Hints:
Elements: H1 3-7, H2 20-32, H3 37-42, H4 48-60, H5 65-71, H6 77-89, H7 93-98
Helix pairs in contact: 4-6, 5-6
Amino acid sequence: QSWRENSSSPQTPKHDPFCLPLREDLEKLLKTVGKSAGHIESEGKSVAWKLAIAAAMKARTVVTNRWLAENLAMGNRYEVSRKVHAWSRRPDAKLARKLQLTPNPKT
């Protein structure tokens, strides 16, 4: 299958070479906040650490809301956008420091 055929499917294939750097970044960020992949499904869609990781990935990569929604179990992509934006306006200071996120100058 070509990349275009894979990209139209609702689930991003785990073997997709375009997603490998994103998965590696996600693993590093999970470790930074003291979580593992097992915590993704077992915790809520809008817990602070998921929002912090999503904000960090959006700041550092070209990750899409769809990818974040699927890989962090955060619900639909529109909610990811809304929740991450809200978190970025008033971030958890401890998580922001851990993930080396710069403060929002507009707040």
